[in-house]
Amino acid sequence: MPAQWTGELVGKMHNAGVTGKELAAQLGKNPKYISQVLNGHYEPKKAEREFNAALSAIIEGRQKKEDCPMAKKQFLKLRRLAEDQDITTDELAAKAGIVPRTLRKRFAAPESCGTWNWEEIDGICRALHIPQEQIGEHFFPKVEKGA
């Protein structure tokens, strides 16, 4: 018969939408092993602590992602400025001296989590003729003035 902690863990997994495969991946174990332990067929020492820690790590990882959600169109003002000047993302990358894949990655990152370096900002500002006083509204729209 399974230990009580396994039933509680399975309940937490269900509530959090965590699968046995995800738990196995977090633990670096085979999903069959996870199933054996959770069904009471195998009772390794320290399993309760390790399984609960792994589940907590998965849930915390998901919460961090929710704190920094992906929106459909990040840096929309910056994208529209390029579009208005008939410049594609790849053309903008070339003009700014940025690898196209890097620029696409920056555009895909959430504004609240994006990490532009000063060289990228400088290159894009030069390519799109963005004045210094407008840098904030294009690259850091979530930051209020004077903050």
Notes on the structure:
The protein is mostly helical and 147 residues long. 63% of the residues lie in helices and 0% in strands. It has 9 helices and no strands. It has helices at residues 4-16, 20-27, 31-38, 47-67, 76-84, 89-96, 100-108, 118-128, 135-139. Helix 1 (4-16) packs parallel to helix 4, helix 2 (20-27) crosses helix 3 (31-38) and helix 6 crosses helix 8 (118-128). The longest helix has 21 residues, at 47-67. The termini are far apart. The mean pLDDT is 85.
How many angstroms does the end-to-end distance come to?
Answer: 58 Å
Averaged pLDDT: 85
State the low-pLDDT regions, or none. Answer: none
Rounded Rg = 23 Å
Strand content: under 5%
Described by strand count, sense and barrel closure, the largest sheet is: none
Essential attributes:
mainly alpha, 147 residues, 0% strand, 9 helices
Brief overview:
By secondary structure, the protein is an all-alpha fold. It contains nine helices and no strands. The chain is rod-shaped.
Set down the secondary structure blueprint:
Elements: H1 4-16, H2 20-27, H3 31-38, H4 47-67, H5 76-84, H6 89-96, H7 100-108, H8 118-128, H9 135-139
